[in-house]
Request: fold
Amino acid sequence: MSETTIRSGYAKRTHTRILIIGGLLALLILLTGVAATLGSYPISVIEVFETILGGRGADSDISTIVWDYRLPRILMGILAGAALGLAGAMMQGILKNPLASPFTLGIASAASFGASLAIVLGAGVAAGGSLIIGNAFLFTLIAAAAVYGLARIRGITPETMIMAGIAIMYLFSALTSFLQYLGDTEDVHAVVFWMFGSLGRSTWETVSVVAILVGALFPLFLLSARSLNTLAAGDEAAKSLGVPVEQIRICGMAGASLLTAGVICFTGTIGFIGLVAPHITRMILGGDHRFLLPGTAVVGALVLLGADSIGRTIMAPQILPVGIMTAFLGVPFFIFLFLSRRRNYW
Reply:
């Protein structure tokens, strides 16, 4: 096979990947319009996009409903899905493990403990309405630091980081269960509801915070894409090519943990996005992180926004928490993946 043929095939594959990501973005825009029509007040998709493109405009009922009630929830779903998908893709890339995610490595368990501590005992690092948010954010970072510290003792390798993450997950899960045992019925109910995960608490302020985090970390993740590709060949091969393996793992873990913390402190525990979105994207686009990372962000946004839209309609007017819906969608996907996997796409 000639060099020209190889270059032509690579360029064609790159073009196809870009088109697929563009198609996924178009689908996300369409889903955004559809999601904004869901609710007790009937609004068409055309009216939604006219309202969005026209700005807040006059204080009409449609403008108020779209801008003040529905868009914050929808944008939080998009940003949270993108962030959790990116965090999962980064962790799977740096650890070379298809089961790595912010939730299998104890990050979510730590956030749940922090929120439980605030709800049951009223103890935390912030005051007023920010108590639960502050605790969830802080303990997420503490868990990431603990995983790094434990792994550091035996060397920063995929195996040691995964084992440390599992240990941290069980520790914080046990602490959360202990707090639930101590709490009264109302407090336990509040803890359980927080752990379900919900986009209903979204505001323009929380959307702005998550948008800043994603906007700051996403370019940094893309800059590390080539290093992640090299890392897939093995640590020794990556080191021989000049890749700072340990530094990539530490920075990648820190960035993924920060993204996860910035999302779940506002939404509560939303599982499976960090696992499902990278796998779906790998099946569609392959393992090149230059395309995998942006593709995963879009797929994560699609999955989370789609799950929330289903949760808002399946038992309307009652709204199912999005964390329940992502579990319902995630479990069948992994069963399907296990039963029908025909090739090694990892």
